[in-house]
Amino acid sequence: MFNLAFDDGDHQLYSVLNVVDVKNEKYYIELCRVGEIRDYNETSLYVEENLFTCFHKSYDKLKTKLTREWKFQYDIKDVLLKSILNQ
């Protein structure tokens, strides 16, 4: 009878260890998934921020040219700039 109890204890220990292994694997997979999402988002945000900065500089240059060089009236300049922003 002692051997049966011992075998049952080994089986329970193996089951517990197996559950721990499965949980650890699940957590590892989840950490990898979250890390990939974070890396993608950081890269995307970096690119988007650079594009926005370039757009903002170009927009400001155009705004200045419309007023100073091309001497557009305020109403026309405003319509043109708003149409650029809407696109």
Question: What do you see in this structure?
Answer:
This protein has 87 residues and is mostly helical. It has one domain. It is built from two helices and no strands. The chain has helices at 2-69, 74-86. The longest helix has 68 residues, at 2-69. The protein is rod-shaped and about 90 Å long. The N and C termini lie far apart (81 Å).
Helical segment count: 2
Order of helices and strands: HH
Provide the β-strand percentage band: under 5%
Domain module count: 1
User: What does the largest sheet look like?
Assistant: none
How many beta-strand elements? 0
- Poorly predicted regions are 1-6
Through-space gap between termini: 81 Å
Taking Cα atoms only, what radius of gyration do you get, to the nearest Å?
32 Å
- Mean of pLDDT: 88
Described by the principal axes of the CA atoms, the overall outline is rod-shaped
Structural class: mainly alpha
Proportion in helices: over 70%
Name the descriptors.
mainly alpha; 87 residues; 93% helix; rod-shaped; 2 helices
In short:
This protein is mostly helical. It is 93% helix and 0% strand.
List the helices and strands and how they pair.
Elements: H1 2-69, H2 74-86
